[in-house]
Design brief:
alpha+beta, three-stranded antiparallel β-sheet, 8 helices, elongated
């Protein structure tokens, strides 16, 4: 462990942190209390104010919105999508699906080159 990470680890373990801070730290793999608190403030803006709500709302971590949509909807509608001809399956614009439909039910927090998705209707 680097000296900086060890120092941050020592600060986090000696300072009293809330359950929510601990859960955000684990979920986002963050050691910085200030970064954790910034993410908590953003989550609170969406009504997620405790670790139970966080766990209920969390829907996964993906590299982009289109991958999230494709993964989620292919899981939910697998039979319907598989029943479509291949030329239609490959024509789905998953980024457009995010912008036209999914962003109203989900929101994303961008951190460390990845999007963390949460259901607005947890």
């Amino acid at each position: 462990m680097s000296l900086i990470k060890q120092y941050i680890h020592n600060i986090m373990t000696t300072a009293t942190i809330t359950d929510m801070q601990q859960r955000v730290s684990e979920l986002f793999d963050i050691d910085s209390v200030s970064k954790i608190d910034t993410i908590i403030q953003e989550l609170e803006g969406y009504g997620i104010d405790n670790e139970e709500n966080l766990d209920d709302a969390f829907s996964g971590c993906y590299r982009d919105e289109s991958t999230f949509c494709e993964d989620l909807l292919c899981d939910i509608y697998s039979e319907q999508i598989e029943a479509m001809p291949v030329f239609l399956q490959t024509a789905i614009d998953w980024e457009m699906v995010w912008h036209q439909s999914m962003q109203y039910d989900y929101f994303a927090i961008y951190h460390d080159s990845e999007y963390y998705f949460f259901n607005r209707n947890f």
